[in-house]
Amino acid sequence: MNAPDHRPNGAAQAGLFTPLRLDRGLTLANRLAVAPMTRVSATEDGRATPQMADYYAAFAAGGFGLVITEGIYTDRAHAQGYLFQPGLTDDAQRDAWRTVVDRVHAHGGRIIAQLMHAGALSQGNPHRGATKGPSAVLPKGRQMTFYRGDGPYRMPEAMSDEDIAEAIEGFAQAARRAQEAGFDGVEIHGANGYLLDQFLTAHTNLRADRYGGSLENRLRLTVEVIGAVRRATGQRFIVGVRSSQGKVNDFTHKWEGGETDAAQIYRGLGAQPIDYLHTTEFEAWRPAFGDQGPSLAALARRHVAVPVLANGSLHDPLQADGVMARMEADFVSLGRGALTHADWPARLRAGTGFEAFDRGVLAPIADLANAARHREERHCASGNGTSAQDPD
């Protein structure tokens, strides 16, 4: 059944299809990006597969100017969060990504590798038995079953100085391998409750050293990772950062200091050698704090000079265009919309309707094999061909 068809008028639509030039010489064909979405479909040893190449290429073929990969683990110590998550920790993993990159480029798209360290939220890491985070604080919530998790999170061990140095170096070396694989840039995952966000968050970071206490100290690890990644990749490679308040295990979390904290965080990030900032909320246009006031994307744009990428329920074209028309963001990323229609941009251009997101593609396991099975089951049940333009 089709969802309500909310399409902006031609003038508004044109804004989403205006090219965007980032620093360091990279131009995106339009303002539409695919958001990073965990699909746990790599090989057991973390190599990208031909099925993943098809999946990512479909977005570029469908008209998205930018594709951001799922979170890629950065080291063989404590970074990996999920079984069958892809990595960038060795040459074999790097080389497997080259096919994905080439396929996206062949369709005129750009592709950025999201680099992720799961920290205390790791629920599937064959490299280490224990989890580590800023402090020995039990994470809220329970492991995600659709990523093969079961039961509560484990109590993490507090990271030593050596552990922190290893994590920073992991980000740097993974970024270097991404560059060698042909990616157009990397996005440092500082959001959604993973390691860098754990250091930023007061109740998960109880440290008394230079990485704990004040907000400036809690942001320090993200700043040091940005610096290490920039040094590893040089001055001609795109480096972005993702930021959020909510977490995969704590959806409603808000920064305790409200707009004051947002200003300090974004000024701190904006002072670093980054090329864009990617904010994510459940609904990107909602006030970041309370019932009134600016959105998180708008706050970021107020305090950084680089382009802001907004994410959060922007599969409605009116909302996607709205955050740009109000100058809250410079471009937008889609998750559910992209999963429903890999050709979302082409459909918008053509005036074709959009179908509602089908959560069946993510259950019981949010991988590409399950999505393919679900699509086939719908095909058999409908008896009239494929029922949606799923990218999987």
Overview of the structural elements:
With 392 residues, the protein is an alpha/beta fold. The chain has a single domain (10-382), classed as Aldolase class I (TIM Barrel, Alpha-Beta Barrel). The protein contains twelve helices and twelve strands. It has helices at residues 10-16, 50-61, 91-106, 161-181, 195-200, 215-233, 258-270, 296-303, 317-325, 336-340, 344-350, 368-382; strands spanning 20-21, 27-28, 32-34, 66-73, 110-116, 132-133, 157-158, 185-189, 238-244, 276-280, 308-311, 331-334. Strands 3-4-5-8-9-10-11-12 form an eight-stranded parallel barrel, surrounded by six helices. It has a two-stranded antiparallel ribbon with strand order 1-2. Helix 7 (258-270) links the parallel strand 9 (238-244) and strand 10 (276-280). It is globular and about 55 Å long. It starts with 9 loop residues before the first helix and ends in a 10-residue tail after the last helix. Residues 1-12 and 384-392 have low confidence and may be disordered.
